[in-house]
Amino acid sequence: MQPWTLLGVLSLLIAVPDALAVKSHDFKTCSQAGFCRRGRALSARAADAKSAWKSPYSLDASSIAITPNKAVFTAGVKSTLYPDIKFGLELRVHEDGVVRVRMDEVDGLRKRYDEAAAWALIAEPRISQDIAWTAGKKDIRAKYGNNEVVVAFEPLKITLLRGGKEQVVLNGQGLLHMEHFRAKAVAETKTEEADPAPEQGAEDAEEQVVMEVKEPNPRAWFEGDSEDDWWEERFSTWTDTKPKGPESLSIDISFPSHGTIYGIPQHATRLALPTTAGDAPTFTDPYRLYNADVFEYLASSPMSLYGSIPVLHAHSADSTVGIFHAMGSETWIDVAHASNKSTQTHWISESGILDLFLMPGPTPADIFAQYAGLTGTPVLPPHWSLGYHQCRWNYISSDDVRTVQKRFDEEDMPVDVFWLDIEYAEDHKYFMWDQKNFPDPVDMTNDVAALGRKMVVIVDPHLKRTDNYPAFKEASDRKVLVKPPSGEGEYEGWCWSGSSSWIDFFDPNSWDWWMSLFKTTASKTGWTWTSSTTDIHIWNDMNEPSVFNGPEISMPRDNIHYGGWEHRDVHNINGMLFSNLTSKAVQHRTDQPTRPFVLTRSFFAGSQRFGAMWTGDNLGTWEHMAVGIQMVLANGIAGMSFAGSDVGGFFGNPEPEMLVRWYQVGIFNPFLRAHAHIDTKRREPFLLEQPYKGMVKDILRLRYTMLPVWYTAFRETSVTGVPVLRPHYVMFPKDPKGFDLDDQYFIGASGLLVKPITTKGATETTVYLPEDEVYYDYFTHHAHRGAAKGKEISVQAALHQIPLFVRGGSIVPTRERPRRSSPLMKQDPFTLRVALNTKGSAKGEVYLDDGVSYKHEEGQFVWRAFTAEAVGKKSVRLSSTDLAAGRPGEAVDGVALTGYKAANGFAESVRDVRVEKVVVLGLSGKPASVKVEGGGELVWEYTAGVAAGGKGEGAASVLTIKDPKVRIVEGWAIVIQL
Ligand SMILES: *[C@@H]1O[C@H](CO)[C@@H](O)[C@H](O)[C@H]1NC(C)=O
Ligand SMILES: *[C@@H]1O[C@H](CO)[C@@H](O)[C@H](O)[C@H]1NC(C)=O
Predict the structure, then answer these.
(1) d(CA 263, CA 529)
(2) Is any ligand 1 atom within 6 A of the Cβ of residue 340?
(3) Which Pfam families does the UniProt record give (predicted)?
(4) What CATH number should be reported for the domain holding residue 876?
(5) Domain range spanning residue 418?
(6) Is the pTM of the predicted complex or chain greater than 0.85?
(7) pLDDT, tens digit, 9 for 90 and up, residues 822-834
């Protein structure tokens, strides 16, 4: 949601949805941020100097210290410009081959923020014991596997090589610059609080003199000749006091063998990142990472949005590498291509140490494993949260909620969750129901829960400053609120609730207290949310944090957090802590923890452990619909798989055609929610006229039939980190024709390929098939044939049609009985779509558990593999096997299956669930018989058509086996005799 400032109201009035209405002047460009300006000026000077440019940083070889096991080395680093300033460098190689590079100022005037990694990482990574650093005259190096890390001494340059080929190079362009802490120049220090030691003052005076000399001055040559916004910075009406002075960090990171890069979400751009520097860049400003509440954001821009994940993939046909920069402060990233085979990036951060993880790949799947090893995998969400979420700002009363639910049921449209935005809360004091409109919140929630549904209610981080609000009062008493620049008292800003303060979740004293608020039972020790139930889950909005009267609609950078750190140091991490603690609070409301659902707008590296995100306040335009897909893909490859963009667009009144298309996009997002601004017309799907209403009903039902696919994909990502939505470069890393594709993608390992339509008036589209394989139209069973070098096909895409294909070689499990909510599907039978590949085989899997508890961690689940294999020339055998059985104590995909028994409690509870239909596509001819192994002939039908093994295209042959009476929890085989 968005600031309701006077300006906000004005721009709402003039906001036609497709006008570019972003208030750009609310947000800094690089040239308005002192440190970004300095960083870009540095790279401009380097470009001008060409080969004469030389990094002043070098490694002091005499200071190298290698740990006794030889796995880690540390060394001093010096800059020729400031011989008295010391820096320390440390390199270590983790067991999985990730290289960690840390550099910090040593014994400086102050300390740089060094805790970003501590928040992002799941654990201290294990260091490889097989590495031996060896120091030579010019460099120190370590070889491991096919990789080698080389640290050149002078100038300092760090290179990761594979097979002798450069993969990642740090400071190859000489843009490394860690601005050391200094005292403010004497003449200006009279009123300064920073109290420089006498000799420092003298040194500074000396610096001043040096600066004035007109002769070539190496410092000015490198750093520029002005103290550009070193000690204070103005933006619009705000002044940032910058008491610590300049402390920015610049570093160039090059990928000499990689022409395409992806990642660094969140930005509204293509998935393959366009350039911001070099010749004819697409964007003139660098990509910005500074979590911000951007009103009516642009559909194509490197501007900051709500979340920041400093993760980048660099890709080519023969190699993928990645980097993760654990950096919590504002960061700008320039991207340029020296050729179409290499990429240069330049990272400019406001504060913090250099803490860089180089992920060696060599495939996208390896990068996902390496990144998950650092920051964790996405959470396995509650099953119901993969259903349809109906939201609006606002459902205005408990009766409104009941009516909306009734209308869904009257129209037989499935829905799992009803949402309440800020207006449920009296004076926007979250937790506190507006008694007039929500007199019976528990009854209302119980009415929703009666059909297996849930509610999600918003809880924002700004607390109204009033003593009659327990959340504020208790936070204030406990002194866990963010402090103003003085470090004393409580920071006060303006948000939905008027004068507000913000909890400092960096303060561990806030943690247990925050968790206690969500208890639904009374407590003697403090306030608890007794007017709620465990069917209410939480939406965390505004956690960038959004502050209406703050600089860039956020918190002043000189505010003070726990430990004395400034807000600038931790800004991008801040939102993650809020959703972390809220998800823990929801998880632990009951004695037996249950899976929480917490949606967050702001996020950082690691947020995938806490719940879902969405792409914020999008517009109801075709451009936003399209870029939403690209943003969800980008978030997924950076770990945040559980992502979606608001169906319909937050702003505007989409016409029926657009709304139908938006639902088609939405059901192929991992997180599926419709949401709308308070000024928009109601647009719940039951309000549509026919034929649109029927179309949306079919679309929502399609999502529900595919819940087994989605849940199985979530299980996988929760273990491996491979994203739920898989772009082409992830599936087919060697196919350059797929590198730029970001409007069609695969769902998990299911073999489903979708290309949602995001243009008005479309009746057909083209789809790229990357391989010589059959792709079956999901609805018509038309067999399309790809080609070894890739091929585009034309397909129908009228409004009621979704280009959705099953890749030959896949078996897709669905549940096709329409239900009103997903929990009501628990005992429903399955349909298996067996899409034979050119070799006549196929495989797939399904994962099921109770969807709400943690009993799956004790082995309470069902996890089956389905396999179709040609046996000789004359038969096909389709079987179901247990993916977890027979391997007690063994790890599968990294998960210990200790405790798993085929006859576990959950499996018992779904013992009677059958496969009610099997559809086999692409058989080579009419079967002579179809039998369950060891049983009699089954009931089946066959339509002749194109066989998977041939070269033909057209209607595929279809064998439909009716009710084979095999059960999902058991092993079985069906033999098709040709
Ligand atoms: C890359 O550049 C080379 C030389 O300029 C050109 O021949 C080649 O077609 C380009 N490749 C791509 C994928 O654009
Ligand atoms: C999440 O919160 C816990 C406290 O419950 C804390 O120990 C942990 O460091 C936090 N992690 C992140 C990533 O915020």
Answers:
(1) 39
(2) yes
(3) Gal_mutarotas_2, Glyco_hydro_31_2nd, Glyco_hydro_31_3rd
(4) 2.60.40.1180
(5) 383-459+513-546+569-729
(6) yes
(7) 999 999 999 999 9
